[in-house]
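Closing statement on the adenosine-5'-diphosphate sub-project.
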Amino acid sequence: MLGLMQDRPLLISTVIEHAAKFHPAAEIVSRTAEGPIHRCTYADIHRRSKQLANALTKLGVQPGERVASLAWNGYRHMEMYFGVSGTGAVLHTINPRLFPEQIEYIANHAEDQFLFFDLTFLPIVEKLAAAMTSVKGFVLMTDRTHLPAITRVPNLICYEDLIGDQSSDYDWPQFDENTASSLCYTSGTTGNPKGVLYSHRSSLLHSMMASAVDGLGLGANETALLIVPMFHVNAWGMPYAGALCGAKLVMPGPAMDGKSVYELMRDEKVTLALGVPTVWLMLFQHVDANKLKPKSELALKRVVIGGSSAPRAMSERFEIDFGAFVIHAWGMTEMSPLGTVCNLLPKHRDYDLQQRLDIQAKQGRGIYGVELRITDDEGNALPHDGKAFGHLMVRGPWIVSSYYRGEGGKILDADGYFDTGDVATIDADGYMQITDRSKDVIKSGGEWISSIDLENAAMGHPAVAEAAVIGAAHSKWQERPLLIIVKKPGQELTREGMLQYLDGKIVKWWTPDDVVFVAELPHTATGKLQKMKLREQFKTYRLPTDV
Ligand code: ADP
């Protein structure tokens, strides 16, 4: 027997309609690519996204066609989130940090019809325009006064001219909630990037859980700073989630340096900030260099850290110097991205800070909608005892079922689980902890050593700015850990000093066989350590223990 409730489709347009009705004056504050800070409201975004929808219709964009963006976090990009998807077209957010050849590849693979881009990216668009064969027009996301006098970009359209004389009357079309809404390519650390095609339904279900109190806890009383880019996994769904609950959103534009981020936090009274660890390291450096007092100057209450592991020392610093609680979260492009969130349980109330930080170092518990399991190499489920570690598998309504245009073939197992490529433990309370990427785990004499655990331990040393651990070849053990460190400016640290520091903090046999110091570590387009490059760099490295 079917239920007798209304079957209203979960469409992205309903979210901005809601925001315009119930939170019309809540602000969207953006640092623009042109420079100045821009302020507008959900009512403005609503009106202008409808103008954009009318403009796209006039340009002949059909439902299902891809419209691409190459843009920072900002209000015009947000208008595209609603204006493009709301018409039934697909917003393809392109990551500008990809290599130019990759950008060309994905624009052609997606058969983008129009490309909207920020001023910053004019040089790259000039270079690639001719090779983007499906693109009929290039829209510069600026006003007339900032248009370049001369450009090699063909069919250049000015965003403000495009939408300026359009009506703000537009009836959002109603369609199946499973219709595609946006497209994001994975960074492609191996092989070509692959497209993940989100739907209206998956995006909305994800946003509802993301804003829930035991998700990331967004609400009308929060001011959220989105350092996580809108060009990568829809800024963790925050533009939709923000509109859903009327949160004030603060967008950093191109300025992610410590000074700019700190000033935005201070001036906009940010209560919740979201970003990857590298951004917070830059913020800390700025605070240190200028002897700032974040706890008394900022209104920051919570920081969501994901994308890579949030080092314990980082959570501790936010807690002590900023008075802010770190919410560690884990996910991936293929998961929209949220999978687990590290919130505390009633039993943790009496924990002291150090005990609490032990919990916060974990990536957290599966949020409703995400089923998690860990398996061995044969696919057998492993116990949730916090010790056994295996392949982390996920299933749920905002998790990929296959890549765009079938790239990579069948990607789910017989039970419909997707292999995340991460290796993890899950404890009896359901807290998941990533121990490694399956390809980064160090295989020492048949046993596995977690490179991430070692990195986190090393990061606790006050002289360490960044640490990476890779498996270096060893004739007896096959692989042994090599610790690679970037020191903080002006700090002294020796190999012996580091090993002494680690003593007692890690299992004895995990102790790195050597410690080397480098000026910087290679990162991917999304700020992750590029272990593949490091392994390449240290391919012929001879460990002192290998005699
Ligand atoms: P990319 O496509 O650039 O790899 P994703 O955002 O999809 O970017 O990366 C997902 C991967 O990032 C995860 O599979 C995991 O390895 C890593 N990751 C994400 N969040 C965390 C976290 N909190 N701790 C450790 N690793 C994380």
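Residues 479 and 504 are 22 Å apart (CA to CA). With this model delivered, the sub-project is considered complete and its resources will be redirected to Aim 3.
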